[in-house]
Each structure stands twice: as C-alpha cells, then as structure tokens.
Amino acid sequence: MTTPAYPEDSRIELLTCPYNKAHQIQRNRMQTHLIKCRKSYPEILKTVCPFNVTHLVKEPELAYHVALCPDRASLEKFRTQDELDRKDEINDEINVITYQQLGSSENWDCVRVENTYNPKSYLENACVLRQAPAGSKPSQRKEFRAAEFKRITSKKLGN
Ligand SMILES: [Zn+2]
Ligand SMILES: [Zn+2]
C-alpha cells in the first residue's frame, strides 16, 4: 500500500511514488511519472485491475490505479441499478403474496380485493356487482344481476 504524503507547508498535494518512496510527485504529474518510473522496475509483475480485466497494472501501482479507475465508477453505478431492480422484484412478490392471501382467505372481503396489484384479475375475481351493459332492457338487467349474484355466491362458496 502507498501512503500519500500531504506536506502541511505546501498547497500542492504530493504523492509518494509507489516504486520509490524518495519520489514525491505532484498528483497531476503522477501518471506521467509512473510511465517513466515503472520502466526502471521491469522485474515487477503486472496484476489485473479488479474492475476491468483489460487493465494490467504493476502491483505497486494497483492502489493508485484503483482510486482512479474509470470502470470503478461505472461498476458502482451498475451495482446500484441492480439493487433497485431487485427491490422491484421483491415488491412484485409481496403483491402476489398479498393477492393470494386475500383470494384464499375465508373471510376475504370485497373492499380489500381493491388492493390487489392486477386490475384484470381484480375485475375477474372481485365480488362486486357489475353494472348491466348500458341500454339493457329492465328484464335484461334483472337477468344480468341474477347472473352476477350467482357468480359472486359461487365464488364465496369456493366453487
Ligand atoms: Zn517513481
Ligand atoms: Zn482499472
């Protein structure tokens, strides 16, 4: 690990070269310095950046590289998005469980069914009297209501 030096009497931030502690390099010159300096240490092996396998960095430079690696930022962003997606999935699961519990419960009541997340299932399963189609004759309306009543009662009995 490298220990960046922060001289108190200087406003210029100096970093310690990872290859040689005697090299105190300004932060904005470090990249250029490393290109030259690493040539003096050809025996030091390269290692792979944890954020991008195409980044080959000499071991002493790894900490410095990781701090600046452009793929680190994008990876952290990606991970956050992934966590958000996972939260949505969990919410969906909760909705499904809620719906199933309401549907199978013996004392389920009509009002609570409105909390289900799927409007289509709600319409198919809710024990709410649907209105007879507009323009129906009174006899048709009566018939429709009778059918509705039958549909709801059979659902309540669990048939
Ligand atoms: Zn150096
Ligand atoms: Zn990298």
Question: How would you characterize the overall build of this protein?
Answer:
The structure is a single chain. By secondary structure, the protein is mainly alpha-helical. The protein has a domain at 127-158. The chain contains six helices and four strands. A hairpin with a 7-residue loop joins strand 1 (14-16) and strand 2 (24-26). One zinc ion (ZN) binds next to loops.
SSE order and pairing:
Elements: E1 14-16, E2 24-26, H1 30-37, E3 46-48, E4 56-58, H2 62-68, H3 70-104, H4 110-113, H5 119-125, H6 138-156
Antiparallel strand pairs: 1-2, 3-4
In short:
This protein is mostly helical.
Q: What are the main properties of this structure?
A:
159 residues; mainly alpha; 50% helix; binds zinc ion
Helix/strand/pairing category: mainly alpha
Main β sheet profile: 2 strands, antiparallel
| Order of helix and strand elements from N to C terminus | EEHEEHHHHH
Average the pLDDT over all residues and give the rounded result.
75
Basic shape:
rod-shaped
Strand order of the largest sheet: 1-2
How many helical stretches?
A: 6
Uncertain runs are: 108-116
Bound small molecules, which ones?
Answer: zinc ion
* Number of DSSP E strands: 4
User: What percent strand?
Assistant: 5-15%
Q: Quote the distance from N terminus to C terminus.
A: 71 Å
Radius of gyration: 34 Å
